[in-house]
Design a protein that fits this description.
By secondary structure, the chain is α+β, with helices and mostly antiparallel strands. The protein is built from 3 helices and 15 strands. The radius of gyration is 25 Å and the shape is globular.
Length: 278
């Protein structure tokens, strides 16, 4: 007859060893997982540059200026200072701004021309978690050069908008162009472009409805002088609310600087600025 009150058999020494080994393996896997997840750049890089060589001597080409710790993760200032004058013979053809751990890591791709004189760019971005921020310079000869900074910031992409959706959309598309110093020809002039746009990321929850506001952001910019394109950009949700850009161009004659912006709903906005010599 079976003894219904018998004490369960204890695991053998070998079974205990096997269980211990399994637990150690699981713990090791758990410890390794963050390191694997943190290596986002190895997954982003091939989609942008395939197996092309990227030099890390970008300090000779460009300086990336970022805060070490952002005061506001939804509005992180980014300054790209180039050290290569834009000339027809040698110039920066593209600047890639990449935020490794953002949901949309390619924040912007700027297509440059010699007419800029300087390929410097300033803007403001959202950062979702502690991450490397990179600028990759592509020269007109096809060579690539990269510089990066580590930025401590979190929650920028999922932070609620500064205004409620209806208020944010009220003046959508209003733009302003301003020259830092007007009236000087044949010299690089800094331009500030301000766009009123909520640039909803699609990741922020409306605090009233508890629903996620659908994404709606500026996705493309075209800048022309006297009808000739001098700069264009593809942008994404990583650019902050009310996008703000500073860039340069060289006016050789009096004329009109125009900017056209297109957002993710294919709405188009346009503004212009008349440039005169003193």
């Amino acid at each position: 007859m079976r003894n219904l009150h018998a004490t369960p058999a204890r695991p053998t020494h070998r079974l205990r060893q096997a269980c211990t080994a399994a637990l150690i393996a699981l713990a090791a896997a758990a410890m390794l997982q963050p390191a694997v997840a943190a290596d986002n750049w190895s997954r982003i890089r091939p989609g942008l540059f395939q197996n092309r060589a990227i030099a890390t001597d970008a300090a000779l080409m460009v300086e990336l200026v970022t805060p070490a710790r952002a005061q506001d993760a939804a509005v992180v200032p980014i300054t790209i200072k180039t050290r290569v004058p834009q000339s027809p013979e040698r110039y920066i053809s593209k600047l890639y701004l990449v935020i490794d751990k953002n949901p949309a890591p390619v924040a912007a791709v700027f297509s440059m021309t010699p007419d800029l004189g300087r390929a410097d760019i300033e803007t403001r971005v959202r950062i979702e978690e502690y991450t490397d921020v990179r600028v990759i310079v592509e020269m007109n000869d096809g060579s690539l050069h990269m510089s990066s900074n580590y930025v401590k910031a979190s929650g920028g992409c999922s932070a609620p908008a500064g205004k409620d959706p209806a208020e944010a959309a009220a003046g959508i598309g209003k733009m302003k162009l301003a020259l830092e110093q007007s009236g000087t020809l044949d010299q690089p002039q800094q331009v500030q472009l301000m766009i009123r746009h909520p640039n909803f990321s699609g990741l922020a929850m409306d605090q009233v409805t508890r629903l996620y506001t659908p994404p709606h952001f500026v996705r493309h910019l075209d800048v022309a002088y006297n009808g000739k394109r001098i700069l264009s950009a593809e942008t994404d949700i990583s650019i902050s609310e009310n996008p703000n850009f500073r860039f340069y161009f060289v006016p050789h004659t009096e004329g009109t600087l125009t900017v056209e912006a297109v957002d993710s709903q294919d709405l188009s906005y346009r503004t212009s600025l008349v440039v005169k010599a003193n």
